[in-house]
Amino acid sequence: DTDILAAFRVTPQPGVPAEEAGAAVAAESSTGTWTTVWTDGLTSLDRYKGRCYDIEPVPGEENQFIAYVAYPLDLFEEGSVTNLFTSIVGNVFGFKALRALRLEDLRIPPAYSKTFQGPPHGIQDERDKLNKYGRPLLGCTIKPKLGLS
What we know:
- The chain is an alpha+beta fold.
- The chain has one domain (4-130): Alpha-Beta Plaits (2-Layer Sandwich), CATH 3.30.70.
- It is 21% helix and 23% strand.
- It has four helices and four strands; from the N terminus they run βαββαβαα.
- The chain has helices at 18-28, 81-88, 110-113, 123-130, and strands at 3-12, 51-57, 65-72, 98-107.
- A four-stranded antiparallel beta sheet has the order 2-3-1-4, covered by helices on one side.
- The longest helix has 11 residues, at 18-28.
- The radius of gyration is 17 Å and the shape is globular.
């Protein structure tokens, strides 16, 4: 009830141990960054970081593993599906230590899922505001480690 649980199918790059790949997924999809950020000293990252608590080989698949990751609820904004998914399924999928990555399962505590109120308006309102029709609308991942100066 205090964590969001994710199961990722992980295929590490050659030479990367499964445990290291699982830990990298947990870090990169929560508090990890490739550079030093001045805001790191403002809080204890241990409170927010994802933890790979188990890793199992996928039966019948060579060099594939299921990495089980727990994310503390404090990492996420209540009521924000966008915040939840940009963290868990954001840029971690382009992580160079992995040859392949797929989210297999996501378990959200019932109390947290009740904070999602649904969108304030529909896709038609968004298309009207943007004056964009007949094509998909795409966005990008916004993380707090970007744009600070």
